Amino acid sequence: MIVSLKERFRKGLFQYGQFSIIGVTSGILDLGSLNLLLFLFPTEDPVFLTLFNTIAYSLAVLNSYIWNAKYTFREGKERGYRQKLIFVAQAGVSLIISDVSFVLAIDLFHWFSLPSWIEYNASKGASMFLSATSSFFFMKFFVFRKRSEA
């Protein structure tokens, strides 16, 4: 079946909307987890900040996978071993993007002499935006791609 470019664009926008809603819930989980870890174990050590970001990000990614597989990209329902392996690979790349941008943004915001909780949350917001954007494209074009598109 041939699908028009207009139809594909409209479907892509709808998918991005679904992905964004799921992303907001994952973002709340991500930010909440990071802030809980920072509240329980206050630190300015970049190694621990990266570890906390990794834990928070991993919880959000798991949440995202479950909901996106069920709703946003359900047409690519293969969900076999291969799909999970590709998902883990994209999550790893997105995690690197998240961790690197998080630590770099902290360094950048530190120049403004802001309270650390503002630095950390603004940095987390920037890293969430960058990793979520890359994750959408990885999931759409690699993880949940239909076999006919392969």
Description:
- The longest helix is centred in the N-terminal third of the chain and has 36 residues.
- By secondary structure, the protein is mainly α.
- Helix 2 packs across helix 3.
- It contains 4 helices and no strands.
- The mean pLDDT is 86.
- It starts with a helix and ends in a 7-residue tail after the last helix.
- The protein is elongated and about 55 Å long.
Which sheet architecture does the biggest sheet show? Answer: none
End-to-end Cα distance, whole Å, is 16 Å
Order of helices and strands: HHHH
Overall pLDDT confidence: 86
Shape assignment = elongated
Q: Compute the gyration radius: what is it? A: 17 Å
Number of helices: 4
Structural class: mainly alpha
Roughly what fraction of the amino acids lie in strands? Answer: under 5%
- In total, how many beta strands? 0
Helix share bin: over 70%
Regions with pLDDT < 50 over 5+ consecutive residues? Answer: none
Task: Please sum up the structure shown.
This protein is an all-alpha fold and 150 residues long.
List the topology elements:
Elements: H1 5-40, H2 46-72, H3 81-110, H4 116-143
State the main characteristics.
150 residues; mainly alpha
